[in-house]
Amino acid sequence: MQVCFRLAAAAAAAVLLLASCSLTPSGSGPGTGTASAPAATVPAPGTTRPGTPEEPAPGTGTAGPDASFLSPGRRTARWGSFAGQREACLGVAANVAVLLLAPLSFLTEVDEEELAELKAQVSRTRHQVPKALKEDFAHLEEVLAENEDEEEFDEEALLEAVEPIRDWLAANCNS
Fold first, then answer.
1. Can you tell me the distance from the alpha carbon of 44 to that of 70, in angstroms, rounded to the nearest whole number?
2. Tens of pLDDT along 68-83?
3. Helix, strand, coil abundance in the chain, percent, nearest 5
4. 156-170: per-residue pLDDT in tens?
């Protein structure tokens, strides 16, 4: 039961960290397009369909979210497939929140389907995170794999595996 409370407290801390993240560019003000989450549906440059209206001028307040952070040319190893610190912090914190809340669904038994979904998410995320976190996410995949065919989910192992990621968030995302 103590592990459940630690898990809930860690998840709450991750959610608070996630809530403090922002994709709003510094120096932006009212009337500028901002994103509250990664815009996954923004078309790549040059892929707009013929006949679609042109984008309004920047700063008019009618444009959609600024998709400049999706430009692959701006990616660096330091922030993985994220454009910069804010996006990396937001993406990693969101995944940590999911990871810390997911075991609550395994309180009575390990649901193989849910565990497979969680493992797939960790695998996808591992390919997106900054280089400094790739090994930590690979270790998370191993921890989740160890829970296959088990009746009881090893929450302690998950918390230990998430700790280095939480440390990275604390070191890189508290500005």
1. 8
2. 334 444 556 678 878 8
3. 55, 0, 40
4. 999 999 999 999 999
